[in-house]
């Protein structure tokens, strides 16, 4: 720090992990940060509007080694078939995996207005991730379906805004607001021409494709119902329609990445009372209902059905989105855009009402603080009426457990249970 307003930060980090071969276990990750507190300059001192202004920028590298402990080894496993024991190939690798590296540029402004009554943080970032640690598809004739490699390049860039304000301060009443919103744009720059998809394709349509956001939903586009006979229809490559699913054109049919996410907190206080309301929101993401072929199955013998089935095709001339119900017919139940829904939502995540007893009351009982509160979680949620699941706030990638799969397989709903609506009563006592 120079003169209290010119800032420089320089770091160098060396990491090593035994998850990689001995020849590539070490990674060097430097970073440089610069800052300038502009409000300390003579031309901004004592400014009535701008009480604080800081400009900052940084560039650095970080590494990712989140793979299995022995994934870099080709392994065999013991197996028994009938009365015969033997070894079978397990993991298959080229033994050359190394650190996945992200180069990131950050620039930002920190602004304080009206003696910091309003503070604003503006950030732009650009992340370039190379040598991705991914399970790459290989010909199954090799005896394997995937092989872990360092491959490809992904770009993320975005803009983040955070605003904190003291809205009202009238006697004992105060109202403060905190707001944040983030916009991220993701793109797969290169996969060396390889389409990366999960080894287990059972009802999973996420892929990593060059030129598309990661995890893009790729499959056949649903075209509705033939009003003459109730057949499910799919779009062909020339823009026409067909009732033959195998003849449908495979294309990008959805994107699980949201346009923006954010949160809003309002805090109201009056003497010892406090009301804290926190809402979160997500907009522009698609959710693929992997259970659609079971819960909206048009007469197949599977699970309990959605109310959407009441709108099924019944008579020639019916105009509807739901095909005719046919026992064992699989009419429209194949993986398609039929089961893709708008995943946007806004949720009152938490609401807390609290009361802190006056200090004059507590002194007689020799207590320093007593606070009583009631908190509600997941109280209200607004989302698309067409969404067939119970909770649009999905936090996992179905049954995929590996890091590589969870990076690609997301935005899926397979009977995801709703988060509990919880009411908590409590009291905090300090002696």
Structural notes for this entry:
With 431 residues, the protein is mainly beta. Helices cover 4% and strands 49% of the residues. It has 3 helices and 25 strands. It has helices at residues 292-295, 359-364, 403-408, and strands spanning 6-16, 26-37, 50-64, 76-81, 84-89, 100-113, 118-130, 133-137, 146-150, 153-170, 173-190, 206-207, 216-220, 222-225, 232-235, 241-242, 250-254, 260-270, 273-283, 286-289, 340-342, 345-356, 369-383, 412-413, 422-430. A 12-stranded antiparallel β-sheet has the order 1-2-3-6-7-10-11-18-19-22-23-25, with no helix packed on it.
Largest sheet: 12 strands, antiparallel
How many E-type strands?
25
What is the topology, as strand order, of the major beta sheet?
A: 1-2-3-6-7-10-11-18-19-22-23-25
Please tell me how large the radius of gyration is. 28 Å
Report the principal-axis shape: globular
Number of helices: 3
Measured as a percent range, the helix fraction is: under 10%
Q: What percent of residues are in strands?
A: over 45%
- Mean pLDDT score, rounded? 90
H/E element order: EEEEEEEEEEEEEEEEEEEEHEEHEHEE
The parts where pLDDT drops under 50 for at least 5 residues are none
